[in-house]
Predict the 3D structure of the following.
Amino acid sequence: RPGAREAAATEVRLAPGAAEPHLATAAVLLAEGDRPGAEAAVDRALAIAPNSAEGLMRKAGLQFAAGNMAGVVASTGRLIEQQPSHVQARVLRAEAIIRQGDPAKAREEVEAALRFQPNSAPATYLRGLLLFRAQDWRGADEMFQRLGSGLANYGDGVLLQAVTKRALGQNAQALDAAQRYAARVPEDIRGAKLLASLELEGNRPNEAVAVLSRYLSRGTPDAEAFDLLGRGHAAAGRPREAAEALQRAAALAPQDAAILARLAAARLASGDAQGTTQAAQSSLLLAPNQAGARELLAVTALNRGDFATAEAELGKLDEAGRRGEAAGLLAGTIQLGRLDQAGARTTFETVLRNHPESIGARVGLARVAGLQDQPAEADRLLTEVLQRDPVNGDAIASLSATAAAGGPRGAAARALLEAAQAATPAEPRLALAVATLFAAAGEQNRALTLLESEPLRAPGRGAALPLARSQAYAAAGRWPEAEVAARAALAEEADNAFARRQLGALLVRDGKPQEAEALLRDGLRMQPANMLIQQTLVGLVQQSRGLDAALVTADEIARQPATQPNSRLLRGDLLLAAQRPADAARAFATAYAEAPSVLLATRQATAWQAAQQPAAAIAALNDWLKRDPESIEANDLLAQIDLMAGRLPEAEARLVKVVERMPNNGPALNNLAWILGERAGSERGGPDAARARDYAERAYFLMPNVETADTLGWILTRAGEPQRALPLLRAAAAPRAGRTTDPGMTYRLAATLDATGERAEAIGLLDPLLAGTPAFPERAEAERLLARLRAGR
């Protein structure tokens, strides 16, 4: 540059009246970063030669760089008047006119440039850009293809091509272009966001998360990028991470109702009911007619069994929103929760008619069919669900439970699951469900054959499949293969505590306790607060070296701050498992004195109960209640102690506190419903009957099991609705493998059968019950009922 500067200065001295020396000077000054000096030199050249093509182009280039588009248009216009075929001038003029927002006039310039030079790459690019902006995707694609690899020379060219290909539905080509652009310009968030969007559309959420994480790690905040990151985590089944990313997006774009609605959905999936409500309400403040946020509020209410609030939220939807699939599914679920089976069936059928591919409507109808004792219809619907969605958890869980129960229907459900798995052999959840059924039936070889199949052996799919293989190998006594599979599971997920526990157990069995202990200590270094690893380690030490050594190890772990608070439970848990409940209670009490917590208080109370010292258990819990009078855990456990002791008023008062603080606590709701139902039954109705029914409906909706079905069914029978109660009580009293039916449930079913006029069946239940069960709380009532039935009264 110094030599160029000297040469230019010499030129000016030798020929001060010529334009060229001044243009040479301008070039040198521009190279040195002196734009004002360069433009002054160009102006001197143009004063000497006003029509100099080089001078006018240099002037226009400097004006373009300065953002003076009007100046660019004027300078190139002067040149084009003298040389209409000057393609470079027309291209620059067209680009300036585009910046001015006049695409029609810019197109005229581009077309003129292409008439003079049909293969002009800059003109072809600008023509593609104009077609892109007009959303003429095919036209734009044709222009970009003409440029071939040269498209990369034009700033956003490859990015525009990616967007164009995406708009044309050519997602593979769009992905390729987006990847090339992101690699070439990694600092451009537009490329990262486009690439992430394409990965999400291709159902590759982990790849999308990786792309966005790389960009966002540089510290540049961007609401849309965090929004996409949240969607990626949600699609990959990581609701907590999704909520964190969407919270960042909402902070950057607090007026974006859609982001807030997605934040509400992520919080719902992560179990944050309060956060869901807050985000959904904020979204509705910005967009009151937004159906999605309103539906999320209804879902949140349903999740705590609050049918009235859920119904009220749906009532706020406009007519179009109420006709939507989600609103219909929620309405049907509310009806189902209130045991309005006919209404729920009608609602779900309407949804299915309006949305023929609806998964939710089929699942809802299957639940109705199950309650109405129509197993064939339920299985047919669940099969349709799996055909459309092979990973549907509701369908897999329901069919698996039916299959595990055995009998003709169980065999049919198992056959359906096997057929669904055969149709989608690479789907892990179905394979694991079917393999579990095989193993439970003692068919270890079939389980292994399935889990060893080629579609399920590909690496990089997580620890669940190799871990299941290891467990199946172990059950079949194939120990070396079990160890290899366990190591494969740990290689897939080094932080998977279950895989580490499995491998540790296999090493101990193989006579390698020191290697197993080292493996678990390594896991503890990685995850010091992981309770499963802590428990497995002390259990392994107990197995290989005895209880005293395990207690020493437990104390050693508990002294490490990073392992607390979970490690404070280890000594007590070991003693409790060793059938030394009083010693366990004292260990928990010592840990509690050092660092009081509700967990240690409840563990201490449980141990004192096991030691048959209820007064000490109550004292431990009351000590914590002095610190936290509203503690859900302490009040809940005290209520259970009161229930067992027959102190129903005290239990009721505590349970009311529990359900006020935790409205989705199914066991507490069920216990409270039972207490109120018993009082309402003895008083023949009254306000307690309505409250009992409400609590029982909520408990059954949140936790549909034997106990809640029995509670709700008996409340309905005593309220004069035995027909509605009968399916619930049949389900509660039905024999199940590995479970002894509560004689009280059998009595309540018989009493309900009597109320529905099915006396012969009631007698058939009571005869063997009374003959085979000498004592149970309801025996006297059962004897009176049988006597009355035999007398024909």
